[in-house]
Write a structure and sequence with these properties.
heterodimer, A: 102 residues, 2 domains, elongated, B: 384 residues, alpha+beta, six-stranded mixed sheet, five-stranded antiparallel sheet, 53% helix
Chain lengths: 102, 384
C-alpha cells in the first residue's frame, strides 16, 4: 500500500513528542538520583562555611564572586580591565592553558 | 470529505511541495534547528546552574562580616568578635580563615581554608578532587593520593610539606574542586598572619528576619566592615548566570535576526515556480483559504520539526554531554575546572517560552506575507 507523506510526518511528530516526554522522565529520574548528592554538597557547604561555587578559579573575584570587593573592575589597579567578562569570551592564551590540554 | 481528511490531503500536498525544493528546505530546517538548539542549551544550562547553586548555597553562612581597607577586603581583627557577639539576636560569631595560594607547578590557584576538624593536626591536609590533578601533565596522568606530600612555600620563603590525609569526593567538585583544608597553625605559618586577625567573621543569628537589623548595627559600630547576607550570595549567583546566559543570548540574537530575515525573505520572495504552483492550484479550484492553509502547514512542518529536534539535541548537549560547546566559555582561564554533570532542572514553562519565542514568530513571518501570494490572479501568473 502506498504510504502517505503525512503518515511519515505524523510518525516523526509522535516519536519526537515521545522523546520529549522521555526527556522529562529522564530529568525527573536524574533529579531524584542526584538529590542526595545535592544535599551532600549543601552539607559540605554548611560544615565548611563555604560561600561560592568552584567554577572559575582564574581570579579571586571570579572564584568567590559573592565575597568580591565592591569595586570589581579596578581589583588589581586603576584602569585595569575587568577579567571576568573577557575571560568568558576570549580564548585562553596558550601559556595559561592547563598542562593536560596543551 | 471530512475536515480531518481535507487537512491530511493538504498536508500531503504541502510535504510533496516541500520535498520538490528539498535542498532549500532541508538547509532551512538545519539552520532553524541550530538556532533553537543554541537558545535551548543556554536556557537549560543557566536554569539548572541557578537551581543547583540556590539549593547548594542554602547551606552557606547566614551572615559574613568582612573588613574593607581602601575599598579592598582586608583581615579583620578578632577583637571585633567580642562586641559583635553582644548585639541582640546574634547567636554566635566565629572567625573564618581562608585565602588563595598560587601553585607554580600546576599554575593553579587553590583556595586554602582552615578546617576545625584539623585542630592539633598540623602538617595534615584534606584536598578537593581537582587538587589531586595538579601533577597531571600531557604525558602523565598521575594524581595525588592519600599520604602524598604537597610542598607549600610560606610567605617567609621557607617550604612547608603537608601530607594529604583525605580527598573530598568527586561528586562535590562543584563546591570543593580547588579546596585545600589545613589546620589553623599551618594556615598562619604559610600566610604569615598573626593570631589577632581572621579573614572574615561568620555569624549565626536566632531569627533570620533580624538579619538586616543586625547587619545595620554592625556597620554602625564598625564603619570599616561590610556584612554579606546569605540572600546576597544567592542573588549573586542569580546575576552571574543571568549575565552569562545574557552574553550568549546577545551573540545569538544576531543569528536569530539573520534567521528571521531569511525566513521572511523566503516567504515574501516567492520563486517563479512557487507562483506558478499557486496559480495552477487556484485555476483548478483551490480557494484562497486552502492556499493559506497550505502555507500554514508549510510553516508548521518546518518549525515543529526544528523545534522538537532542537530541544532534544540541547538536552543531550547539556545533560548528557556535559555542555561540551559551552565549556571553553565557562572555563575561562581556570586551570582547575571542576568536572561535574548538571542535574536536569527543566520544566514545561521553559519549553513553552522557547516555543513562543521561536515557532510563533516564524509561523507569523511566513503566513502573513503568504496572504499576498494567495490572492494572486491565476490567469496573470500562468501567462507570465
Amino acid at each position: 500500500m502506498h504510504k502517505r507523506r503525512s503518515d511519515v510526518f505524523f510518525a516523526f511528530l509522535l516519536i519526537s513528542t515521545l522523546l520529549v516526554c522521555l526527556m522529562f522522565i529522564h530529568a525527573t529520574v536524574r533529579r531524584n538520583i542526584n538529590m542526595p548528592l545535592i544535599h551532600e554538597k549543601k552539607e559540605i557547604v554548611r560544615v565548611l562555611k563555604l560561600t561560592d561555587l568552584c567554577l572559575f578559579t582564574e581570579a579571586r573575584y571570579t572564584r568567590h564572586p559573592s565575597m568580591a570587593d565592591l569595586n570589581t573592575p579596578f581589583q588589581d589597579h586603576p584602569m585595569s580591565l575587568e577579567h571576568f567578562p573577557s575571560g568568558s569570551i576570549m580564548p585562553v592564551p596558550i601559556h595559561l592553558k592547563p598542562r593536560m590540554q596543551r | 470529505m471530512g475536515a480531518i481528511e481535507k487537512q491530511r490531503h493538504i498536508l500531503d500536498f504541502t510535504l510533496s511541495s516541500l520535498w520538490r525544493r528539498k535542498g532549500k528546505n532541508i538547509s532551512l530546517v538545519i539552520v532553524y534547528t541550530f538556532v533553537i538548539f543554541l537558545l535551548a542549551s543556554v536556557m537549560f544550562f543557566a536554569h539548572s546552574m541557578k537551581e543547583e547553586a540556590s539549593l547548594v548555597l542554602e547551606g552557606s553562612p547566614e551572615l559574613i562580616v568582612q573588613r574593607l581597607v581602601a575599598g579592598r577586603q582586608d583581615f579583620i581583627p578578632t577583637s571585633y568578635i567580642d562586641s559583635i557577639k553582644h548585639i541582640k539576636g546574634v547567636q554566635s560569631v566565629s572567625p573564618r580563615l581562608w585565602g588563595y595560594y598560587y601553585d607554580a607547578l600546576s599554575g593553579a590557584n587553590y583556595t586554602v581554608m582552615v578546617n576545625e576538624a584539623l585542630k592539633n593536626r598540623a602538617g595534615e591536609i584534606i584536598v578537593g578532587n581537582g587538587v589531586t590533578r595538579r601533577r597531571a601533565t600531557e604525558k602523565r596522568n598521575s594524581v595525588v593520593k592519600v599520604n602524598d606530600t604537597i610542598p607549600f612555600k610560606t610567605y617567609g620563603g621557607s617550604i612547608v610539606p603537608l601530607k594529604v590525609k583525605g580527598i573530598l569526593s568527586s561528586d562535590s567538585e562543584l563546591v570543593t574542586s580547588d579546596l585545600i583544608q589545613v589546620s589553623e597553625e599551618d594556615f598562619r605559618k604559610i600566610f604569615g598572619i598573626s593570631k589577632d586577625y581572621a579573614t572574615d567573621l561568620v555569624l549565626k543569628v536566632r531569627n533570620a528576619k533580624e538579619l538586616p537589623t543586625i547587619a545595620g548595627k554592625i556597620t554602625r559600630a564598625y564603619p570599616d566592615t561590610r556584612p554579606i547576607m546569605r540572600d546576597e550570595i544567592l542573588r549573586t549567583y542569580d546575576a552571574v548566570f543571568d549575565w552569562r546566559g545574557g552574553v550568549i543570548v546577545v551573540v545569538l540574537t544576531g543569528s536569530l535576526f539573520a534567521f528571521i530575515i531569511l525566513a521572511w525573505d523566503k516567504a515574501t520572495g516567492l520563486s517563479a515556480e512557487e507562483k506558478k504552483e499557486i496559480g495552477i492550484l487556484k485555476a483548478i479550484g483551490w480557494e484562497t483559504s486552502d492556499i493559506l492553509l497550505m502555507k500554514f502547514w508549510e510553516g508548521a512542518v518546518v518549525s515543529l520539526s526544528a523545534f522538537l529536534t532542537g530541544i532534544l539535541l540541547a538536552y543531550l548537549h547539556i545533560f548528557l554531554m556535559a555542555s561540551i560547546l559551552f565549556e571553553p566559555v565557562l572555563k575561562g582561564w581556570s586551570v582547575l575546572y571542576p568536572q561535574f554533570k548538571l542535574t536536569p532542572f527543566i520544566n514545561a514553562y521553559q519549553l513553552v517560552t522557547l516555543f513562543f519565542l521561536t515557532v510563533i514568530p516564524y509561523t507569523v513571518a511566513t503566513i502573513v506575507p503568504s496572504w499576498r501570494s494567495a490572492t494572486i490572479d491565476p490567469d496573470s501568473v500562468m501567462r507570465a
